[in-house]
Design a protein that fits this description.
The chain has 223 residues and is an alpha/beta fold. It has eight helices and nine strands.
């Protein structure tokens, strides 16, 4: 019987860009169901959920393609309902499609969190050295540097929104290269393989893309 994959996005469904990349890593015929933590909200209601600080800031893309900054606290409060719906859909595996670090949530048992995938890979590949991060917004830099910090690791951060054009991505990649990192992690699920290619070409070190790294782990789970 074909498997069913559930995906929670911190924004709104549909997100075909996210679903299509995950589909590339699962068995043909796998049913994919994507639900958003902000599903059912109007644009005005989403705009009212603005971040209260840099530490409370998440990036997401709404249905229709609009980029927004959203409160992590608000997303955390709304996510259990999306998880519950996916469990009701009979999903064999569920991915929470955000690289943020979240507190325990109702229904998050055995859910695959990309932040844990990236952290595990980075620690295994770079026990000591300099880690370069690409993040959506500059105000997230301090919070995310703390998230990644561990003894023996120097963390450097540059920012570019995932919807940026190729020139803006190339400029961010050059800034990152100037820090001379030993490894780079793209800390947002909306970064694409094209973003990774541009960064890797500029920095010339191993570069981790959250969505494809998570997809490879998902393949192991579902196979």
């Amino acid at each position: 019987m074909p498997s069913t994959l559930g995906i929670v996005t911190i924004g709104q469904a549909p997100r075909d860009d996210i679903a299509d990349l995950f589909i590339a890593y699962v068995t043909p015929g796998t049913k994919v169901i994507l639900r958003g933590a902000l599903d059912g909200l109007t644009d005005a209601e989403v705009d009212a959920l603005s971040p209260q600080s840099g530490a409370d800031t998440l990036y997401t893309r709404l249905r229709g393609g609009r980029d927004v900054k959203i409160s992590k606290h608000a997303v955390t409060e709304r996510s259990p309902a999306a998880l519950a719906k996916l469990r009701g859909d009979g999903c064999d595996a569920i991915v929470y499609a955000c690289t943020g670090e979240f507190p325990p949530m109702s229904g998050d048992q055995n859910v695959l969190f990309p932040s844990r995938v990236l952290a595990g890979l980075a620690e295994g590949l770079l026990p000591r050295g300099r880690l370069g991060l690409l993040v959506p917004f500059a105000e997230q830099g301090e919070k995310l540097a703390r998230k990644w910090a561990r003894p023996g690791l120097d963390v450097v951060v540059e920012a570019v929104v995932p919807s940026a054009n190729s020139a803006e991505v190339a400029a961010a990649a050059r800034r990152l290269a100037g820090h001379r990192p030993d490894l780079v992690a793209l800390d947002c699920m909306s970064y694409t393989p094209a973003t990774k290619a541009a960064v890797k070409d500029a920095v010339k070190v191993p570069t981790l893309l959250a969505i494809t790294a998570t997809g490879r782990v998902l393949q192991e789970i579902l196979d």
